[in-house]
Amino acid sequence: MTANQQLETSNRQPLHGRRILLGVCGSIAAYKAAALTRLLVKAGAEVQVILTEVAAAFVTPLTLGTLSKKPVLTGFLRDAAAGEWHNHVELGLWADALLIAPASANTIGQLANGLCPNLLCAVYLSARCPVFLAPAMDLDMYAHPAVTQNLARLRSFGNHVFESPAGELASGLQGPGRMLEPEDIVAELEKFFAR
Ligand SMILES: Cc1cc2nc3c(=O)[nH]c(=O)nc-3n(C[C@H](O)[C@H](O)[C@H](O)COP(=O)(O)O)c2cc1C
Known about the structure:
CATH class: Alpha Beta
Helix content: 40-55%
CATH architecture: 3-Layer(aba) Sandwich
Radius of gyration: 17 Å
Bound molecules: flavin mononucleotide
């Protein structure tokens, strides 16, 4: 294949050159964020990862920063002593899509209610791009009416909430609550951007 043919092929990939903000929350499914980042990068996307502080206990910035080829963002402040901060407004405007995967019950509740305790929530409120959420939590958390209502509220804002597939959960319980698999999330985004 010539260099031109290669360029044409890569340009036909729906995620090629797309700027994806990947928000990762404190769920046991956060380990899947590494595979998701890798797949998005392989699909040609530019990925900026934002971890919540709790998520950083589940998956390291070193892993996600290496896979995304960009420093991972966590707090509002870059260098408190120097007064440097991460500009959530600029991040929100930079992105072609905000993908939150896994989306925890806690973050879902904050987003549904316009709360803004961390960088990820501030970026969500600032973003003008399409927003995709892949909830991940245990069976009874996912089935709780508070979570169901919060997800319905996010859908009513026009956000795309992926259904959680049923299966075995980390707790050993069976049913919905699992994060949609990284391959399926990427396929959904490709479908969206191919339109
Ligand atoms: C081991 C462990 C696993 C957890 N898994 C989940 C989970 O899958 N989904 C979820 O919504 N919360 C889960 N939690 C609770 C969240 O970590 C907690 O609500 C946290 O405040 C979420 O913060 P964040 O939304 O800012 O990331 C888990 C907690 C622990 C200790």
